[in-house]
Amino acid sequence: MTLQLNGEQLTIRDIQRFLAHNDTVEITDQALSRVKDSRATVERIIRDKETIYGITTGFGLFSDVRIDDKQYNQLQVNLIRSHACGVGEPFADNVALVMMVLRLNTLLKGHSGVTVGLIDQLIYFINHRIVPVIPQQGSLGASGDLAPLSHLALALIGEGKVVYQGEVRDSKDVLQELGREPHTLQAKEGLALINGTQAMTAQGVISYIEAEDLGYQAEWIAALTHQSLNGITDAYNEQVHKARNYQEQIDVAERMRDWLAGSQLTTRQAELRVQDAYTLRCIPQIHGASFQVFNYVKEKLEFEMNAANDNPLIFDEDDETLVISGGNFHGQPVAFALDFLKIGVSELANVAERRLERLVNPQLNHGMPAFLSPEPGLQSGAMIMQYAAASLVSENKTLAHPASVDSIPSSANQEDHVSMGTIASRHGYQIVENARRVLAIECIIALQAVEHQGVEKLSPRTLAKYEALRSIVPSITEDRQFHKDIEAVAQYLRDDAYSSDEQ
């Protein structure tokens, strides 16, 4: 399959399908025409020796330094080499791949002044899955993701590291093997590649895809817990949730009713007790609020995915050409959204840990063995799995502190406010990973708990989930290395995010 890019209509679902199906990309004729027109403007600027930031001048504090016209191309190469200061572990391959797709898409808007050759190089790298090795740390999230995107650019010109067919190699060696020339940067192209928010946005898109899927996964896992504790279904009554107006809450309640339909383990109001604890009773309110966050984040990410966010920008309108230095590279809108995502995902894990505590605590689990141990005292059962979940939840609370409230001036105070959006994106994905493991732990414990209550009494939909998961994680008949079970279930949950196009 092919993902068609035009700079205007790229969605998160497009990216999800692109990754799930290992798609290639192509560009529209209209987008290519815009690229050619904006490049013609850059060539005119060079010919007329105009003073335009980043084309005929230096960068940042050096914006007032005029560059000799014979050194315009070298200026761009120097920019990439000097700005490739990323440190730490590299972004995951899928993040780096999406980074290239997003950078290509923004260049297609026709405001960046790049050559068709650069567009072709990006398409080649994407379609042949030549994935730049891009260190995660080192971006301030304003003036663009300068350090990460410089590592992306290095790969295109044959000077960086890439992952190709599962191996980390020098870009120049891979290109030579494939008979492909490194791209030679022309005036404006280095700046056009690195002035932008594609690192934070790409990681944000991956985090969003997996976070949203976790939201859906949390519902059937919660439904297993609900049945294990003979939860009351009245709290999910449609009238209750319509009375509060939030559509996401209404939707979660409806899905919970569907998951629980036909169960012989659920109860009605006052049948065993009048009402459940909040972690069961308020699942639609709590999970629904996270879906409200996800919807906000999706909107902001998709705006940014189709935005022109480098500098300067070229506009050709009404027979007038404008080249304007602005600040669309500033990551503040994305930083806020990704900090918000951290909170939404953290709470999914927070409430899941409190639910699983009710399953293992003999004071709360309605007569099941303490820690669901097969031999209480001799065997610990799920005791330390709850510890692990509590640790992850606590770590999330630290990571959820907003990165966007911080700013450190750079470039001798020329760039005196920055977004730290890339830190928000990185911490956000750590929270997603932690939350996934908390939900995996709740799942393992809930699977065990329903065996005490009667698997045959489960609702048909959750029984199907029980049977699927039992092929991954067996019943707890004796103590074992539960970290293997946690990772196996977490991988099952992770894979689901890319196994289908829609929920």
From TrEMBL:
Covalent cross-link 5-imidazolinone (Ala-Gly), where: A142-G144
Reaction(s) catalysed by this chain's protein: L-histidine = trans-urocanate + NH4(+)
InterPro entries documented for this protein: Aromatic_Lyase (IPR001106), Fumarase/histidase_N (IPR024083), HutH (IPR005921), L-Aspartase-like (IPR008948), Phe/His_NH3-lyase_AS (IPR022313)
A molecular-function term among this protein's GO annotations: histidine ammonia-lyase activity
EC number(s) given by UniProt: 4.3.1.3
One CC-aspect GO term: cytoplasm
NCBIfam families: hutH, PRK09367.1
Protein name as it appears in the record: Histidine ammonia-lyase
Gene giving rise to this polypeptide: hutH
